[in-house]
């Protein structure tokens, strides 16, 4: 039997598009783990809710492995990275309609190339890992 890809990323994209088509604000419920890059000050009980409306994000990309975008928190722009395995749900803020998921094993999405999701190979040293992380420089 062939191994099929997860339907989750397709459903997330579909609900996001449905929200946008109906004038609703799509929100993402995320279970925060070591692979998730979100502002930790806004994490409550290991979860965070993110507004993924095009007006609230910059460079929003929802692919099969992860959701990435830039957003402002407290006036400061931050780059966010949410692996698809950490997505617990996507819903419209206005009416709560959407879809919720069980948290899945990260290995379902890592598949062929662990480095493709921005995570370093375990055999690399800490300096190499630090060099792969994005940095924010304040320009005046």
TrEMBL record:
This chain belongs to which protein, by name? Stringent starvation protein B
| Coiled-coil region list | none
| Superkingdom as given in the UniProt entry | Bacteria
Ranges for region Disordered = 112-140
Give the transmembrane region(s): none
Give the species: Methylotenera versatilis (strain 301)
């Amino acid at each position: 039997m062939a191994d099929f890809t997860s339907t989750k990323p397709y459903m997330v994209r579909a609900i996001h598009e449905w929200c946008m088509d109906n004038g609703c604000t799509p929100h993402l419920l995320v279970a925060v783990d070591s692979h998730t890059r979100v502002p930790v000050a806004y994490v409550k009980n290991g979860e965070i809710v993110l507004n993924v409306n095009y007006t609230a994000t910059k460079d929003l990309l929802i692919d099969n492995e992860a959701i990435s975008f830039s957003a402002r928190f407290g006036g400061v722009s931050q780059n966010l990275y949410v692996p698809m395995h950490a997505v617990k749900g996507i819903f419209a803020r206005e009416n709560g309609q959407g879809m919720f998921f069980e948290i899945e094993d990260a290995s379902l999405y890592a598949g062929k190339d662990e480095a493709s999701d921005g995570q370093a190979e375990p055999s690399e040293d800490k300096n190499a890992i630090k060099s792969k992380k994005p940095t924010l420089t304040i320009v005046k």
